[in-house]
Amino acid sequence: MKIILLILHFLLASMVTIVSACILQTQMVLLELTKLDIQISLSERLYMTWQDLVGLIPAYGTIITIGLALGFGICKLIWRYTPLKSSILYVVAGGAVMAVILIAMQPVLGVTLVAGARSTLGILLQIAAGMLGGFCFLRLRNQQHSAK
Q1: Higher pLDDT, 114 or 44
Q2: Which residues contact 103 (CB under 8 A, 6 or more apart)?
Q3: Comparing C-alpha atoms, which of 78, 96, 95 is closest to residue 87?
Q4: E strands, the chain, where?
Q5: Residue 106: CB partners within 8 Å, gap ≥ 6?
């Protein structure tokens, strides 16, 4: 039962990260369009956000999920084998994972595929999405441990 809860918590945290990263990247792209005096209605904004979610989740979602699995796994090792016992490790790991993903895309692919992460604000928002996922994982795990 413990492993099932761990997997469920991980998948929920991954989905929080993926969905928030996709929504934030869409809003950054739309922000840039509005700077060009392009009018975007609320219904268009919602539709474009939905389309980006559908389009980005398969590839970007997979990359994020793998990254978070590695990042959270490293946190567990740090927790187990070092004197560093801060719960905030998972929040930091989530942000670091997103930063590494964005940094790695550029030299490997020659382009930043996440259009909403082509500015400093966009990068910071993607990192914040990772931190939100790490916070979600931390809270879910703490909730489980305190229920014992």
Answers
A1: 44
A2: none
A3: 78
A4: none
A5: 112
